[in-house]
Amino acid sequence: MNVEYFISKRLVSAKENKNVFSRPIIRITISAIALSVAVMIISLSVLDGFKSEVMNKVISFGSHIQIENYQDTESDSFTPLVLTEPFLQSIYQNKEIKSVQPIIYDFGLVKTKDDFLGINLKGVSDNYDWNLFSQQITEGELLNSDSSIVISENIANKLKLHLSDKINIYFPSLKKDRIKVRPFYVCGIYNTSMGEFDNSLTFVSSFTLQKLKKWNENEVSMLEITLHDFDDLDVVSSDLSTSVEDYYSKKVSSITYLYPQIFDWLSLQDINVRVIIILMLLVAGVNVVSSLLILILEKTKFIGIIKSLGATNWMVRKIFLYNSMYLVSKGLFLGNLLAFTLLFLQYQFQIISLDETTYYMKSIPISFNFFSFFFLNLGTLILSFLMMIIPTLVITKISAVKAIRFQ
User: Fold this and answer.
1) Does the structure show a pLDDT above 60 at 272?
2) CA-to-CA distance for 159 and 153, rounded, in angstroms?
3) Would you say the C-alpha torsion 364, 336, 230, 276 has a positive or negative sign?
4) What pairing do the DSSP bridges indicate for beta strands 180-190 and 166-171?
C-alpha cells in the first residue's frame, strides 16, 4: 500500500469538503491551471488551422515547387519548357516528389457589354490534381471541356458573370499579329479570399492554350511539383536546382520563395503563440507553487506529528507532491474540457468571424492536432512537477517539536 498516496488522498478530500481556508486556494489554483491550459490549446489549434488554411490556398495555386526556363529579358518572345524524357526522368528520380503537373500561362482581356478586365489564364491538363483547390469552389464545377473556364467571385462580380455565361477572351500578340479571340463558358466560380489570386487568375484547359500559342504537345510554360511532405521543400528545391537536366538554363523556385511575404507573416504567428504558451506555463507554475507553500504552512502541525511518528522528509514531501499533482491533473482535465468545447463550437458554427481581406478567410479556422495537444498536456504536467519539488524543500527545515507546538 502506498501510504503517502493514501494520506494525500485523505488530505485532499478534507480540504475540498471541510477546510474553509484551503478550499478557496484549491479552487483558485485549479481554475488558473484550467484557464492556462485552455488558452494554450486554443492558441495551438487556431495557429495550426490558420497556417494550414493559408498554406493550402497558396499551394493550390502554385504547388510546392515550380520549374521553368530562364527568359531573355531583352527578347519579346517566350521560350517554352520542353518536356523531354531525360528531363522528366531527372525530376522523377527524387523520391520526395508526389506529382508533376505541366502548366501553361497566358494573359487575356475579357470584354463584356458593360466592362472589361485583364486576366491571367492558367492552363491545366485533364489529369490535374484539384484536391486542394476543389475546396475553394463555391458555385458550379471544375473544368469539364476545352472551352470551359473557372473564374473567381471577384471577377464574376466585377463583370456581372454567372454560371454558363459565354465570354470572349482577347489574346494580344507581341509580334503584332492579328488579335485572337476565343469563346469560353463559365463552368465554375471559386473564392479564396486572397486578392492576389482572386482578382485576376482563371483556369482553362492547357490544350486550348497550346493551340492558341501554336506550341507542341511537349511544350509548356512550367512544371508544378507537389511533394509528399512540405518540410522537405528546401532540400528538394535545392537538389532539383542542380540535378535536373540542363539545370543551368532552368529556374527552380519554391513556393516560399515566390510568396515570401505570406510565409514570413505565418512565421511571425509562431512567435506569438510561443510567447503565449510560455506565459501561460509560468502562470500555471506560479499558482501551483504558491498554493503548495500555503498548504504546507497550513499543515505545519500535521507535518510535525507524522515526523514524530517516524516519517522521513522525503515521505512527507511525497504526500504534498501527490496533493499538488492532483490539483494539476484536475486543472488539466477541466482546461482540456473547456478548450475542446469552445473549439468544437467554433469549428461547427463559425461563431467568430474575420475580415477576409486581412486574414484570407471568413472565420477563425480550427485544427485538431491531438499529437500536439498530448505533448502540451504532458509538458505542462512535467514542468509543474519540477516546479513543485523546490517548495517542498521547506518541509526539510520543519522541526517536529516546534511544528507540533505551532498554532
Assistant:
1) yes
2) 10
3) positive
4) antiparallel
Is the pLDDT at 20 greater than 60, yes or no? no
Give the Cα separation of 149 and 297 in Å (integer): 75
323-350 pLDDT per residue, tens:
889 889 999 999 999 999 999 999 999 9
366 CA to centre of own chain: 9
* Cβ neighbours for 274, distance < 8 A, ≥ 6 positions apart: none
Judge whether 202 and 93 are in contact, CB under 8 Å.
no
Neighbours of 214 (CB within 10 A): 7
- The Cα 147–Cα 185 span in angstroms is 6
Spatial contact of 251 and 67, defined as CB atoms under 8 Å apart = yes
What mean pLDDT do residues 360-376 have? 93
Q: How far is the CA of 269 from the CAs of 3, 166, 263, 275, 276, in angstroms?
A: 48, 43, 10, 10, 11
d(CA 204, CA 144): 10
Q: Which of 124, 84, 78, 80 is nearest to 101 (CA)?
A: 124
The answer to whether 58 and 50 have CB atoms below 8 angstroms apart is no
Gap between the Cα atoms of 202 and 26, Å rounded: 60
- Kindly give the residue spans of alpha helices, DSSP state H, lying in 350-405: 356-359, 370-389, 400-405
- Average pLDDT score over the chain: 90
For 391-404, write each residue's pLDDT tens digit.
888 888 887 777 77
Q: With beta carbons less than 8 A apart as the criterion, state whether 44 and 369 touch.
A: yes
Q: Pairing relation of β-strands 65-69 and 97-111?
A: unpaired
Amino acid, single-letter form, for residue 305: I
CA dihedral angle for residue 181, residue 182, residue 184, residue 190, rounded to 10 degrees: -70
Q: List the grid coordinates of 245.
A: 537536366
How far, in whole angstroms, is CA 371 from its chain's centroid?
Answer: 14
- A 10 A CB-CB count for 17 gives 8
Q: Is the separation of the CB atoms in 371 and 379 below 8 Å?
A: no
Task: For residue 102, give the 3-state DSSP assignment.
Answer: strand
The dihedrals phi and psi of 312, each to the nearest 5 degrees, come to: -80, 165
Question: In the Cβ-directed half-sphere of 89, how many Cα atoms lie within 13 Å?
Answer: 3
39-50 pLDDT per residue, tens? 999 999 999 999
Q: What is the DSSP letter of 363?
A: B
| CB contact at 8 A, 341 and 347 | no
**Block residue for cell numbers 505533448:** 375
pLDDT given at position 14? 67
